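Progress against Task 2.4 (sequence-to-structure conversion) is shown through the following example record, which the project officer requested during the mid-term review.
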Amino acid sequence: MPQAHYFSNEPIGEFRPKTIEVTLAGKKVSVQTAGGIFSPDHVDTGTAVLLELLDEAPKLGDVLDIGCGWGPIALSIALARPHVTVWAVDVNERALELTRMNAALLGVTNIKICKPEEVPASLKFAGIWSNPPIRVGKEALHEILKTWLPRLLSGAESYLVVQKNLGADSLLRWLQDTLPKKFSCLKVDNSKQFRVIRVTHKN
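Structure tokens generated for the chain above:
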């Protein structure tokens, strides 16, 4: 599938949902996916690496998933942390519709699914979890991260998973150089193919 498809507001091609079996928050579940979104056939490896750290997700407050796709990160956090409100955002209308469908299928009610501009501007986050859309290009990715990471509450953390050969180390250096000094950025997981970067808004 051409990469541009899942960065589009309205993906090309007919919307044909299909059912796949996955494990989210330790539970085997059936979810709906479709073409025109990221990783429609399974939980991709990077997201799986990130979700191994699910115990680090906050237990209260608002948590953001940037680029939610069909919802694996947002739904996992919502299932594991019933007292948080998860904000699942994406520019792709098909991804948002699938996340809505999957939240309904799984009985998840502590989730808000919307476009980025629909998130209240004053909202601060107890956590930001994302497999960010690296392939949108460096400039666009940097703008996304500069928009959202400063909205972490004091003491809150963001976990980002990035493939090594797509610039994980250079992204870490950029975050360290760009974010204000009140933010710390560290590698916390180093699998064969992926790095997980933790960004902390220090107290």
